[in-house]
Here is the input.
Amino acid sequence: MGLLKDLVGSSQAGISFEEYCSRHIVLDDRSPYLVYSRPFMRDIVEDIFEHPHVTVEKGAQTGFSTLFLAHSFYMVDLLEANLIYYLPTDKMANRFGQTRFDPYVERSQYLKTRMLGTDQAGLKQIGTHFFYMLGLVSKTGAISIPADEVLFDEVALINRENMDLAQDRILASKLGWQKYFSTPIYEEDGIDELYRESDMRKWTVSCEGCGRESIPEEEFPDNIQDARSRGGKVHIYCVKCGKPLNVDRGCWIAEHPERTDLRGYRVPQLAIKDARIDLIWNRWKKAQGKPEKVARVRRSALGIADSGNMQPINSKTLEIVEAASDYYFQDSSDLPCAIGIDMGDNAHIAVLAPYGDGFRIIAAFHIDVEDLLSYIPRWEIAYNVGCLIIDAMPYKTESKRVVRALTQAVGFIQYFKSNYKETTEGEDEKEVLVIQVDRDESLDETTSLFALNPPQALLFKPRNVEEEKISDEIKRHLKKLVKEEGTSADGQKRISYKKKVENHFGMAINSARLALDFITGGRRQKGGITGGKVVGQNIASEIDW
Here is the structure.
């Protein structure tokens, strides 16, 4: 210990987190960090030191990067824990270290004495333990490093699969804590999905005038009064008695108190007493008629997930679809049907029947890929299958076996390419039909059918608990057919559907919709000539509609 004390300053173990923050965490304006200065923070701070699983769905600039960074200093320094702080990319992690971590150390004489030098930008040693800052753009950041606690910042931008892998870092720890915080983007995806899985705590404000309780972000914009034209100001008011609301006079109420294992908070800017409500209101008024800007205000000010036009299928869309869907899961069909299969360790299967200019999802299955081949003959007969399309990847050999197992239906393995094409792959008895389509264009065609009024894509009603689970999974996967802005090979901005997200039934439905086009003749204009026959035209001509 003598050598260690020569290398680093003495720990102040034993002081509270509140005192640690006020002494050693110095904000950008050189003021001490008063962690309880906002009333809504008290329960959250207590929970991050007591509850193993905490999620915070937050508005922009609500102070949580500062809170969790201070929490990390305290955990590593005084409680001698090893922490990993995850961000979406390595670049963001490096920038966080340079612009957030390092300045806090430089502004605190105590923290400077507790630091030991490391050669890696994403690794800091505080006293005897370590604080890692890593990107999760790939699985690489999720492996190899054990930890007592993992924290995920900007969760809305992190791949869920990589995040799940990163949880393995805490399996050997007696502590095993995990924290998630982010401004939301997509409904029921990323941080919003985690929050909805939690007990869903909301800051509930009690009116000092009439006692009515309200959740400010859920009543926005009806709870905003702009009195600037009369010499007043913009403020949040009680929609019952008209008095201004004191948002400090609130408490956290859980929507699902029975979910004791998962603690979740939604923190809007409206919960901050000194928030610039006038600026929020100005942004809101200017955003009207512009879906993307409206969505941005809802995310940043209200902490509510809203992706504007970037999520074609959302809860409201599916409510309309379900209201129009007056039929049950089917075990068979007299009408010719189409099957689409999304491949992976688990195969997701969608069975579609024609409906107007669109389709009805009449059955769906989620099975182990090793069992898939045995189901194909019975499905082909039961659902009178005219065409089946299955992902070529990641198990091309198995996909080809599925196609070759068909006795009456036309079967294709599918690739996503920029241009439409039908061809073959393999030779002689190993030959299979191949279809390639533009991923974004085909998904746009599918999602638009759900969004029509009335919808031209319908979903079965479940008859039992098992079918209800499948129906819920389909709806969840459809909501994950979300778009993001990226850069194409030529450097141009491009809006495309996100990859590596849990949208398997959505992709299966898309493949089945393409297969249904062959049955109904919808692909005849594509000139689908394979092996000397026009596939779509021949199938359509054989069906007595």
